[in-house]
Amino acid sequence: MAGRLKKLLPKRLRAKLGSDDVVIPVVKLSGAIAAGGTAFRPALNLGSCALRLEKAFSMKGAPAVAIVVNSPGGSPVQSRLIYRRIRDLAEEHEKKVHVFVEDAAASGGYMIACAGDDITADPSSIVGSIGVISSSFGFVDAIQKIGVKRRVHTAGQNKSVLDPFLPEKKADIDRLKALQLEIHQVFIDLVKESRGDRLVEHKDMFTGLFWTGGSAKELGLIDEIGDLRSSLKARYGKKTKLALIEPKRGLFGNKVAAGITTGSAAAGAQLADSVASGMDGEAIAAGLADGFISAAEEKLLWNRLGL
Fold first, then answer.
1. Which of 113, 134, 252, 271 is 20 to 30 A from 157 in CA distance terms?
2. CB hemisphere CA count around 118 (13 angstroms)
3. Each residue's pLDDT tens digit, 178-193
């Protein structure tokens, strides 16, 4: 009888009373953040996680959604789009959002983490890096040594800004820095709005530095030190169950949604599916090359954090 009466109560109250059937959907957002993405070049972006987020927030009876973030950062646009979608879904379905940081929630990864009503991290997690970075290579000396001449024809004087095969121009650099400052301010405003008075004033808070979970808690960048399972069971009861919302799988059972497997691991995982689907050899080779390049780029992002 007690169980039947409990089911008549609002779902949030049932959770607080330790209902035996409390289930918390879990969505994992992992990897470098970038627009696009293919079978051979996976990326974490809104397109790769939108369906999983929708499914998680639509789960009836769930008082909250848990988001696991493990990302070194990437596209500021995609980061904010994911952040915004999580907040919109939370308001639409009136659910709490609990964010858990694994190895890192840095740069764009931390922007996504700010979508949580609270953020929990491991004491050794890397958190922060609230800044904007743009990097490339210059090949001016290299092409001169091998006797190659760069020929560029444009309609519009700014169409070849920051061409890696031409000497840098001060005007181009100034323009890039101005853009970075604008994007940086958007990031800062988002963090301040999300974290509010939980933030502790610190001179390096928005300089791009990052901290361990323990230090991040002292600065108010996160709320608790802990882990997914322990935290949710402490909050909703010992019998709380976790339901991982997984991406669709390919022909041979490989996870095909971006942001789940990355780099060369993903390229290998998708090879069988591509062959089976009849993709020609040239396309497969091009895709694999693109995937390995993507893996190298992502590795650089992780290396920046010492991971």
1. 134
2. 15
3. 888 898 999 999 999 9
